[in-house]
Amino acid sequence: MAGVGLGRYLNFPIMAVAAMVFLMLSTVWWSDKRFRLAGFLGLFLLLGAWRYQESFPKQAENFIGKYYGQKIELEGIVVKDPDVRSDKVNLTVKPTTPSPQPSPARGEGEDGRTPTSPPPHEGEEKPATPPQPSPELPQPLFNKRGETVKGKLVGNILLNLGKYPEYQYGDRLKFSGKLEEPFVSEEFSYKNYLARYDTYAVMRFPKVEKLGSAQGSKIKAGLLSVKYRFQSVLSRMLPEPHNALALGIILGVKRSIPEDLKNALIAVGVSHIIVISGYNMSMITQTISRARPVVGRRIAFLLSLLVVLGFVAMTGADASVVRAAIMAMLAVVALNVGRIYVSLNALVFVAGLMVLQNPKILNFDVGFQLSFMATAGLIYLGSWFEARLRFLPNILEFRRNLASTLAAQIFVLPLLVFYFARLSLISVVANVLILWTVPYAMFFALIAGVSGMIFLPAGKLLAIVLWAILQYQIWIVEFFARIPFAQVAVSLPAAGLLIYYPLLFWKLRYLPRKNLLIFSHDHAPQEAKI
Prior knowledge:
Layout: H1 2-6, H2 12-28, H3 33-54, E1 71-78, E2 83-84, E3 89-98, E4 156-161, E5 172-178, H4 190-195, E6 199-204, E7 207-212, H5 218-237, H6 242-251, H7 259-267, H8 278-289, H9 292-295, H10 297-314, H11 319-337, E8 341-342, H12 343-357, H13 360-364, H14 366-388, H15 398-420, E9 422-424, H16 427-435, H17 438-454, H18 456-481, E10 487-489, H19 494-508, E11 518-519
Parallel strand pairs: 4-6
Antiparallel strand pairs: 1-3, 1-5, 2-3, 3-4, 5-7, 8-11, 9-10
C-alpha cells in the first residue's frame, strides 16, 4: 500500500533507476541481511507504484480522455446505479463503440473534398488530417494518424441528465454531445474523484436515445431491484426526514437527506453514521453474538451472516459496503470456528486486497481513508482508552462509546481538518450520545424493511421502534447544532499529515499487543500475533 501511495508522485524513469538501485542492494550485498531486506522491500514498493501507474489507461490508444473537446456520438451501457440529485441525474456509462461516422456534408465527396476540388495526382497520398464534417453534426473520433477510431473506448463517461425520462442500470443508450474533462481546482479535484472508479470524462445534458435494457450483470441488476423495493417499502412506513436518515444509515444513501439535517450532522461531527463502515457492521454482528447463550452459537452465526449479506443486497453490492462486509464476515467466522481474530491483520488484509484491485482508492477515496484510519484507531486505542475510563459507568454503552470516539478521533481528526477545513468542538459528546443507537437503528431498519416487503403491517409495527430511535438521533443532532461555535474553520497543510501520522505510529510501536482488539470464540483476552 505504501508503494501505491508513493506511485502518485513517481514516473517510469525514476522507477526504473530506483529498481536498478534496489536490485544492486539485494544482489551485490546479498550476504548482508539488512541490504537484502532493503532491496526486496524497495522492489515491492516499486511494484505498488507500478500497479498505481498501470491503473490509469492514459496510454491506451482509445482512451476516452484523448477526445476532450470533441462533439461526438457514442453508444454505451449504464454500469452503475443512477445517482439521483434534486435537479438532475448522473449516469455512469461505459462506451461500447463509437456510432457510425456521419455522412459528409452536402457538396462533399467521401474523401472530404468538394466536387470542384481537383483530384489528387497519381501517386499523391491523401491528406492525413481527418475530414471536417458540418459543425451541426457530432464529430466522429479520429486518432493521431487521422484514422477513424474503431472498437471499444477505454474509460467511463458521466452523463448529466434531467430527471426524466428515467434510466436504469443495464440500459443501452445512444448519446451525443461535447466530451469534457472533469474540472480541477485548488480546493477539489473532480477529475480524481471520478477516476476512483474509472470515469474520466463528463458530458453535460447530451441528446440521449434508449436502445435497449437489461444488458448489465444480471446478479447486480437483481440486487438493485431488491434495493429499490426495499427503499420503496421503507418510504411507505416512515415519514421524512426519518426515512431519509434511515436510508442513509442502512444504505449510505445521502442524496435524499434534507440539507439542513445534513449540515447539522456535519457540524456536530456525526456524519459518519450515514456511511456504511466495517466498524458499524461489526457492531451489528457483535450485538447479535450476545444472544448466543439464548439461541445457540449456530443460530447466532447464521443470523449474523444473513444480516451481513442482507446489507450487501440492500445496497446493491456497493464497493464500500463490500469492504465493510468482508471485515464483519472475518470477525463472524473467527468467532464461530474458535480462531483468534486479530482486527489489525484483518484490516490490513482487506485494505490490501481492495487497493490491489483498485489502487486509485488509496489516493482519491476520502471515505476509504477515513474508514481505514477510524478502524485503525479503534484497534490500537479502543481498549486502551476503555481500560483508563473504567471508573465511568457503562450504562447504554457510555464508557465503550466514549473510548471508541476518542480512539477514532485521534486517527481521523487530521484527515477531517485537511479535507474539510473545519473542526467540530462538540463531536465527542455528540458521538457518545448517538453511537450506542446506531446498531439498533441499522438492525431495525433492515428487519422492518424486509418484513414490510413480505407483509407490510408487520413492517409498520417494527417501524414504530425504528422511528423512535431515529427521532432521538435527530433531536440530539439538532440540539447540538444550535450551540454557538459548534464548529470552527481551521486548516492543515499536507506537510502536517506527513509529520503527524509517522509520529503517531512511532509512538504506538510500544503499545502492548494485548491492547489490540482481538475476538475469539470465548472472548478471552489473548495476545495478538501481528
